[in-house]
Design goal:
Blueprint (H helix, E strand, L loop, with lengths): L3 H27 L4 E6 L2 E6 L5 H9 L3 E5 L5 E4 L1 H7 L3 H4 L13 H9 L9 E5 L5 E13 L2 E10 L1 H53 L5 H32 L5 E4 H11 L1 H4 L2 E4 L5 E4 L1 H17 L8 E9 L2 E8 L31 H11 L3 E6 L5 E8 L3
Parallel strand pairs: 9-11
Antiparallel strand pairs: 1-2, 3-4, 3-7, 5-6, 6-7, 8-10, 11-12, 12-14, 13-14
Length: 403
């Protein structure tokens, strides 16, 4: 245990050290100290306080933006090299001049107003810097009030917007060109699809005429050939229609609207005879979503059509449709009692032209689910499936809820 005299001595030493530290700090604040000597494991080290401003000077001189220090009346006290380059004036001539000379007359009211308002300038406001040769470049100014060593004024950062403007113009031009090409492509697709589908329908029509008028006079083999021609023409016609629908999704500029899911499902069932005659249970819902009406109707009709098509032979298809809220979204479910999908195939069924079944009973173009995925993603939603072989499938579409 320490003696009272030893404790008093230790307290006096601590007070002396504290007083010495306070004197050092006060000297640093007042600028009386240029350097400090710090003792440590590496010996005595000298730290120059005034030299600490060198990295900042280097940073300002090498930065890609112009930097100014100006007085309240606009006289330039300091300018970095980048500003001299932007203004195309020797640095020694820039310093001491008025900053108003570097801006066209129409910008001067904004500059004066910003100085009077202590540096307030509209965020993102674009001005023009006028070089000595009369050339102009778009710039953005960032002003801050400054008070140091008795000097009052402003610090100004001048950002050259030339490259950004060039990029924006190039992007705008590219967007316009893409839009024009998309419109041309859509017109071409529509024309081609019409020109291709017309002869296919003629082929199918003439086949039906032949079978109707001369069917009883044809050999079984000949009738089989005609049936195959008609089936192939019909399948190719469906393929062209699906490709056209898929391509139109990329060009469709319809506006997003608030849609009643329950109404769209019931409308799809009423429109298509094959759905109207099927056993489809629709659980009433008041869910409303944000989406595109026509593409969403195509998605639902595709899912319902698949649900009644992909069932085992001899099994009556049963489909159930319902909606549930999930984290601010609305999820529409379409469940069936069909053949199901292997877990290994559940990702690729949404790929374009992907078909898992070559059986004629499950004919299709392989575009239905890829069209569904593309349309749903365009509306900012998601699509998925839960299924096992022989256990049916549950497809879902998830869109932003309008509530």
């Amino acid at each position: 245990m320490e003696k009272p005299d030893d404790l008093k001595k230790e307290i006096r030493e601590l007070k002396a050290r504290l007083g010495e530290s306070e004197q050092t700090l006060n000297a640093i604040r007042s600028g009386e100290v240029d350097a400090l000597v710090v003792s440590g494991s590496r010996g005595d080290q000298v730290f120059t306080l005034k030299g600490a401003e060198m990295p900042y000077r280097i940073l300002v001189e090498e930065m890609n933006q112009g930097a100014l220090l100006i007085t309240p009346d606009g006289t330039i006290l300091y300018a970095n090299t980048r500003f001299a380059v932007l203004s195309k004036m020797p640095l020694e001539q820039v310093i001491g001049s008025s900053w108003q000379q570097f801006f066209p007359r129409e910008n001067l009211p904004q500059l004066e107003a910003s100085l009077k308002a202590s540096g307030a300038l509209s965020p993102g406001e674009e001005l023009r810097l006028q070089a000595t040769d009369g050339s102009l470049c778009p710039v953005h100014l960032s002003l801050r009030t400054m008070s140091a060593s008795g000097l009052e004024g402003f610090s100004v950062i001048v950002t050259d917007l030339t490259e950004r403007k060039q990029s924006e113009n190039a992007l705008r031009k590219t967007s316009a060109e893409l839009l024009e090409k998309n419109e041309a492509l859509e017109a071409f697709s529509t024309t081609i699809s019409h020109d291709m589908r017309a002869p296919l329908r003629s082929m199918e029509g003439f086949v039906q005429i032949l079978l109707g008028d001369y069917g009883d006079k044809l050999e079984p083999q000949a009738k089989s050939y005609l049936d195959r021609i008609a089936m192939s023409a019909k399948r190719l016609d469906h393929l062209i229609a699906d490709v056209l629908a898929y391509s139109k999704l990329s060009c469709d500029q319809n506006e997003v609207a608030t849609l009643d899911l329950d109404k769209i499902v019931r409308d799809m069932v009423e429109i298509y005879p094959n759905l109207r005659e099927a056993d489809i249970e629709i659980v009433a819902s008041s869910a409303r979503v944000r989406g595109l009406e026509v593409p969403l109707g195509q998605c639902i009709s595709n899912l319902l059509g698949n649900a009644i098509k992909f069932v085992p032979t001899g099994v009556t298809p049963h489909v159930k449709v319902w909606t549930e809220p999930i984290n601010g979204q609305s999820r529409l479910w379409v469940a069936d009692n069909g053949i199901g999908i292997s877990p290994n195939d559940q990702e690729r069924i949404f790929d374009i032209f992907s078909r898992l079944h070559s059986n004629a009973a499950y004919e299709g173009t392989g575009l239905g689910l890829s069209l569904v995925k593309k349309a749903v993603e365009k509306m900012g939603g998601r699509v998925g499936v839960e299924s096992e072989l022989g256990q049916g499938s549950r497809f879902w579409i998830e869109l932003q809820s309008a509530q």
